[in-house]
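Board notes (copied after class):
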Amino acid sequence: MREVVVVLFSGGLDSTVALWWVRHQDWKPAPLSIDYTGRPRGEREAARKIATMAGAEVLEISLPFYQDLQAWRRGSVLPADLAGANPVYLPAKNLLFYAIAAYYAEVLGATRIVGGHYRNDGTLFPDASAAYFARLDALITEGLHSHRPRLELPFLEMTKEAVVRLGLALGAPLDLTWSCYWDGPTPCGRCEGCREKETALQAVENGLGR
């Protein structure tokens, strides 16, 4: 019987490569797509389309109470110490998302929880470093009754270019991914997410960034 693996799946480049990486291991992926206020509709649609291409049924979880910083700013005054935070910062995002993934791992009998975080994530967000995930892995193990899924982050020491190169080698549909921070009919091409994706794709195309 194939191992069931929960994949934190947004429809972005990194999580799409993670989904294809799981398929390449001959595991059975259970992509988990978490919706919240401020999430771009293009990202949600990309997740559905890409999961279908992967032959997997996406688990869509809605968190209507949860919102990123830009949505929060529209509805209330932010605390002063959040003024310099990334506009798509989500408070305690990985703690919450991986807790939800742990729930599904237990009820589905999944052996692993896979995330697509790569090396630079830990410099942008406080809850995406290797040290943080090591602590989170221990907490997930302690918080479940009988099942002990492993937290697996295969790209954590890789550059964005290396993730792109791996995705191309695995045949992942990188052209369908959504990396834009903003909600529009097409990616804006100007935000940090768009620029980072385009830079990595161009570097790989030109044989750079190894």
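Comment from the instructor: The first strand starts at residue 4 and ends at 8. The CA atoms of residues 2 and 26 lie 7 Å apart.
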